[in-house]
Amino acid sequence: MAGDDLIELKFRLFDGTDIGPNKYDPSTTVASLKEAILARWPQEIAPKTINDVKLINAGKILENTWTITESRVPVCELPGGVITMHVVVRPPMLDKNNERPLAKDPKTNRCACTIL
What we know:
By secondary structure, the protein is an alpha+beta fold.
């Protein structure tokens, strides 16, 4: 495969930092991209699984089974340019009975206000 066939991508995290740019084969799946992102994610705030991460390209949320070729929007791209995909972390799941975030230790998420 020629190096010209590779697609250059970078991933913008929610805090404004970037992962990449790196070159990927057009047949690479979105799930594989997410695994690569998790491997390079800053450790103090890393999501646990690829299902906790969403990739967005040109306003479209990309499905894990799609390839890079299927998820590209050629109108928005410049030839030879770097494609920036935005990375969003899914918020924690809510407890459906109490409408509060699920927590392993309920004492860690306590907050108290005192009005004098």
